[in-house]
Amino acid sequence: MTTPPSPTALATQEPAASADVTPPAEDAHVWTEPTAEESTGNPAPPAPPALPAPAGERAPAGEPDPSESTEGAESAERAESAESAVRRDAREFGTFARTGGWTFALMVARSVRPGGAPAGQADGPEPKVSAKEFARLAGCSPERVMRFWRAWDRAADDGVVPVFEALEPGVDIDLPDADVWLGYYTSRSSGDSPRGQAISAVAEAEGIRPTKALEVAENPTALRAAILADPSTAQAARHALLDRLEDDPELGEELAKDIARTGELSKTVASAARTATSVDFVRDIIDKGEMTTPSGERVPAPESVVAEAKQHLTLIEGLDEEDEAPYAADAQKAVRSLVAEAVDSDPQLRAHESRVRFEGKVRKAAKAFEELTLDDAAELYDEELLEQLETLQKAIAECITELRAAGPADS
């Protein structure tokens, strides 16, 4: 037998009524708990404020997240700070790229007076300091500070930058280009000496940085090691020595003595000298269009002799150094023969050559007799010597007679 449910049980099985619709009490047959407002007559306390969502959780949709606004402000501030730092670095980089070491030299030039400011005297609003004090503040050596100071001094002498007296601490000026800086600054203290300045000047003329040349000059042992180990370095040293010989006769004498003391080297030098003389004899005819006669006279060379000399020189220049010597000697011998033939084939030139040769011998004989002294004639007396002198006297008399007979009648 089935028992019908009680009204109370039925009420518990019915779904809750909607919050918007309040059924009449007589129809609901359900007791409802009164709200706090209804029971006490006071309004309900306000809801607690929403707390930020924990890390990794998002706030409910439609509600602003306080953490997002804070992080956004901080990110914007960091971006603005980073941008200003980048701009500052770029600006400083551009300044140094344009001016190079002039930027640092200006700092020294406007702030440093060697020895410091005199007692009771100041340069403008702020007195200049000594190089030692500036170096202490900068955390470097006074020598480094003075290298910049001297570079500015040299540039001021040339009118490239203002003099020290026109500069004030902290005041910027327009600076020269960075490329000009290397012409006045050297990072080595030896560059300030007269010797170092001479080395720097030659280095600049050769198109290299002075610091490299100064470094080599400060370490001759390293230079010797490079010459001994590297053929190309030895060749560069050889060319440099040859170029220096023109302005350094003492070096030439020392090298000549060193060569003479070395047996094999002296023979090689003598052979090379003979070869050079032969080649110069041939080249001289081509370059100047003149030839040297057997008597030593310089006369115009015939075209046939010049053409033959060109052929020999072309052959010599196409040979290796070890084959050059014999061909050079043969070329000189062949060209000399052509010169002699050219002299004999020209009557006027042949007569001139004979006269010059004869005059040369007479001058030599006359000079020899002029140098003789008879202060000790008793010791020089010798019958055979007298006979030679008498024979010479007769030859001279005959020569004079023949020359007078060959001369013009009125002479």
In whole angstroms, the N-to-C terminal distance is 194 Å
Residue ranges: pLDDT <50 for 5 or more in a row? Answer: 1-62
What structural class should be given to the helix and strand makeup?
mainly alpha
Shape verdict: elongated
Number of helical elements: 19
Strand arrangement, largest sheet?
1-2
- Overall mean pLDDT: 76
Q: Note the main sheet.
A: 2 strands, antiparallel
Strand content bin: under 5%
State the share of residues found in helices, binned by percent: 55-70%
SSE ordering = HHHHHHHHHHHHHHEEHHHHH
Q: Radius of gyration, Cα only, in angstroms?
A: 54 Å
E-strand count:
2
Question: Which labels suit this protein?
Answer:
411 residues; mainly alpha; two-stranded antiparallel sheet; 2 strands; 64% helix
